[in-house]
Write a structure and sequence with these properties.
Radius of gyration: 16 Å
Order of helices and strands: HHEEEE
Largest sheet: 4 strands, antiparallel
Structural class: alpha+beta
Strand content: 35-45%
Strand order of the largest sheet: 1-4-3-2
Helix content: 10-25%
Shape: elongated
Number of helices: 2
Distance between the termini: 51 Å
Length: about 110
């Protein structure tokens, strides 16, 4: 009932839930070992901007694009810059994001 009285008039997914799901997608993708390469991933920095609410029961499309990658000698791994979005419909994204990830070979 509190959700119905709130600003959006219906139950929404919290920003923390949406951003955690988006970061989980990044972590699981870059940590995978299905190609035979053992690696570890560290999420260094992520920023989210919440443009539109995500309502309960809506299907959400999560997307990430790698915008740049470079080797970091000091961290002994690849540092990738990512751009992401969460969208409910075609058109404007509900959430936009940027992130930095470090991918290292597992020792």
């Amino acid at each position: 009932q509190a959700a119905y009285r709130a600003h959006f008039g219906d139950v929404i997914a919290s920003g923390q839930q949406t951003s955690a799901t988006m970061m989980g997608l990044v972590a699981s993708h870059f940590s995978r070992a299905d190609d035979g390469v053992q690696r570890q991933t560290l999420l260094l920095n992520f920023n989210f901007s919440f443009k539109l609410p995500v309502y309960a029961g809506q299907d959400v499309r999560l997307e990430w694009r790698v915008s740049s990658v470079e080797w970091n000698q000091r961290m002994q791994g690849m540092v990738g810059q990512l751009e992401g979005k969460a969208s409910v419909e075609h058109g404007k994204p509900n959430v936009i994001a940027r992130g930095t990830v470090l991918v290292q070979p597992r020792q």
